[in-house]
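re: ur question from earlier - yeah i can do the single chain one, its not a big deal. heres the input i used so u can compare w yours
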Amino acid sequence: MKEPEDQLHQIPVEKIIPDPNQPRQTTDEARIQKIVVELAALIKTEGQINAIEVSRLDNRFMIVTGEMRWKRINDCVGNC
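and the output i got, formated as tokens:
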């Protein structure tokens, strides 16, 4: 039986890949660093609140929405 696609699942981070066609290709690095510090503090106290949306791609999952959030989480993992 196929699982419903609109449910929350925990997926191993190493199985998540970014969308190569992500429209946001440039970022303001100074702004990003400030966000990373704030996000690290938030994750440390509350965990990640917003889920990202992915679609199955063979044995991996490609990000549909939330790629910037996913990147920022990966940036601050060692700081949390």
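The first strand starts at residue 16 and ends at 17. not sure if urs matches, ping me
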